[in-house]
Design goal:
The chain is an all-alpha fold and 165 residues long. It has nine helices and no strands.
Amino acid sequence: MMVDKSVQNETFYELDKAKQTAIILLFEDKLSDEQIAKTVNRSRTTLSNWKKDNKFKQAQIEYRRVAIDSYVPDAIKRLHKLAIGAKSEMVSLQAAQSILSMAGFGSVDSSPELEQAKIEKAKADVRKTKAEADIKEAEAKAIKENGSGNLTVNIVPFGDDADGS
């Protein structure tokens, strides 16, 4: 279903061309207020007064909403691409959760699967940190015993990692 953006931007289109241009330039956030005022052939004071006007503020809100809505399809496509192609299962899961949340199928913040993935990642991080600490401890012990920094460490799998998975 196509939405008529002029209906969503009704207040914006009620304004004269100078105010519309000012709203667009304010949204783009590339020029100072002084530069925007000059672009629309008004004084900085006039622009400041416009920015205080309720109708101008409403038009800014409407324009912002419509402008940002135009980014949504690309953002959804990017999330979909991450959901199906990310190398990290965590990234893939989070992208899928974001899509489902936007579609009204739950919260991005938490799910049993996401929590389980976080737990598994934390466990892996702990194992890695412990292994690194064990290596440093062995190096320190070898230096103390041999007076040399040359050390060969053989890592032997154990537990869940013993089968190489």
